[in-house]
Amino acid sequence: MKKILAMLSVIMILASFTIPQSDTDEIVKGLKSGNAEQVSAYFDNYLDLTLPGKEEIKNIGKNQASITIQAFFSENTVKGFDLTSQRESGVMMYITGKLQTKNKAFNVTLLLKNKDGKHQITSVRIS
To answer: Is 52 a member of any domain?
Structure first.
């Protein structure tokens, strides 16, 4: 019985040292793999979206933005993402980086807002 309690204690101590991945880590991971579903899981209900060669769309719904990002990732086969900056000020955060695709690299800027302890993307700019 003492051995079981000791082992459970060790497991609980080790589990407390594991660092959970933050929202932003998951977003960056999604960008690196070109997983639009993973990125769009963090979209706010309405957001602003700018893609290369297209006009900015303001207040696009989460579902339509997800479809649009999925189409962009499909048209431009994503090879990776290099995070260049991540800054937080109050409830707002910026993530910038280079999205590497099959044919070229794009600059990416995401604006996130912390809502109820979770980061939500309120603006996506790819140029």
So the answer is: yes
> Domain tally for the chain?
1
Phi-psi region for residue 90, left (φ > 0), alpha (ψ -120 to 50) or beta? left
Residue 88 lies in a domain: yes
Is 70 part of a structural domain of the chain? yes
Q: For the residues of 79-114, what is the DSSP string, one character each? A: EEEEEEEEEEETTEEEEEEEEEESS-EEEEEEEEEE
- Other C-beta atoms closer than 10 Å to the C-beta of 47 total 23
- Tens of pLDDT, residue by residue over 11-61, are 555 444 433 448 889 999 999 999 999 999 999 999 999 999 889 999 999
User: Which secondary-structure segment (H or E) carries 3?
Assistant: helix 2-17
Flag whether 4 is in a domain. no
Domain that holds residue 79: 21-126
CATH number reported for the structural domain that contains residue 68 in this entry: 3.10.450.50
- Six-digit token pair at 33? 């793999």
Question: Dihedral angle at the C-alpha atoms of 39, 41, 47, 49, nearest 10 degrees?
Answer: 30
Distance CA 72, CA 100 (A): 13
